[in-house]
Design a protein that fits this description.
Layout (H helix, E strand, L loop, with lengths): L40 E6 L18 H13 L2 E8 L5 H16 L3 E7 L8 H17 L11 E2 L2 E7 L7 H8 L7 E5 L11 E3 L18 H13 L5 E6 L3 E2 L10 E2 L5 H12 L9 E4 L21
Parallel strand pairs: 1-2, 1-11, 2-3, 3-5, 5-6, 6-7, 7-8, 8-11
Antiparallel strand pairs: 4-5, 9-10
């Protein structure tokens, strides 16, 4: 079942920090990281592909029940109420098996889970049909009344929340919207900001790691302030009827990824995470609070955004 909104008021975000190798390592408990508002639930994006040979080894498998149980307990201790799991449908059977396990364990631990649908990049002429089939399978496997752990699925105002990670931008989301509106209850569909031409198909937008118009800085110094300010401002002025889901991140470095584009966003000795959380506070209006804050990410070690093992803290 969902954690009560007021429970997030107790979030401490006490994180162990790992320092820069060049500057020495310090491990300490940080207690002054800003907290989300009392009405905001904190979520974290979870990558469920570790243990698969196509991905780097990080010392555990995303299909190990002991690991997942430990991760959920750790996240709960940090005030995180749910994982948003990257999911590909039948394109990634390994990830699908991991998701099933995570949802089942989450249901036992009073934790929540949601799907982030990773859109296909292929232009095979069947992108929308593939998406429709994937959504139907997800509903039957994970949202139906007899699906194992379905009670752990994240809801907002009684409706399941589905995130979309866009890639090809070739999906006809209006067709998808028409189909999923037949579910009972119909889900809330959240796309990545900025909006595309199919804005009417979505109920809201989430912020994601993005340096903004200035682009990626070679030294990693651009931590995305302009992007985030633009997101919060525009959601309030241009899309007041849409759900805005804020974001916080520790940094980004895709050098370990097989798909690397040499993008980097410095952790700035922990300041990037602190500043991104504080920005969500500044734009969190008492009469229109952010329902969720999305941490990007819990465990994406290939793109250097994981907080699972702590955030960089450098010695002076």
């Amino acid at each position: 079942m969902p954690l009560k909104a007021t429970a997030i008021a107790a979030v401490s975000f006490i994180l162990l920090f790992q320092g820069c190798a060049q500057q020495g390592v310090r491990q300490a408990a940080l207690q002054d990281v800003p907290q989300p508002s009392a009405q905001t639930r904190t979520l974290a994006v979870y990558e469920a592909w570790f243990g698969h040979p196509q991905h780097i080894s990080i010392g555990y498998s995303s299909q190990d029940p002991v690991t997942i149980t430990r991760q959920i307990a750790q996240a709960q201790g940090l005030g995180i109420s749910g994982f948003v799991v990257d999911w590909y449908g039948d394109r990634e059977p390994f990830v699908d098996r991991s998701y099933a396990l995570i949802q089942s364990i989450a249901a036992q631990k009073n934790f929540q889970v949601a799907m982030m649908y990773d859109e296909t990049q292929e232009d095979n002429g069947h992108v929308t049909d593939d998406t429709l089939a994937a959504f139907d399978k997800f509903h039957d496997r994970y949202l139906s009344a007899d699906a194992p752990g379905h009670q752990a699925y994240l809801t907002y105002k009684g409706r399941p929340v589905i995130f979309v990670f866009p890639k090809s931008r070739r999906t006809d989301w209006k067709r998808v919207r028409a189909q999923i509106n037949q579910w009972d209850p119909a889900p809330i569909l959240i796309d990545e900001y900025p909006p595309n031409l199919q804005a009417d198909a979505f109920d809201g937008y989430y912020a994601w790691i993005n340096p903004g118009k200035a682009g990626w800085a070679r030294d990693g110094s651009n931590w995305g302030e302009d992007y985030l300010r633009g997101f919060y401002t525009r959601m309030g002025t241009k899309f007041p009827d849409k759900i805005a889901i804020g974001a916080a991140w520790a940094g980004f470095d895709d050098s370990k990824a097989s798909w690397s584009l040499n993008r980097r966003m410095s952790q700035r000795c922990g300041q990037t995470f602190t500043d991104t959380v504080r920005l969500s506070q500044q734009y969190d209006q008492p009469g229109h609070p952010l329902p969720f804050l999305l941490i990007a990410t819990w465990n994406d070690y290939e793109e250097g955004s994981a907080i699972e093992r702590g955030i960089q803290k450098c010695k002076p």
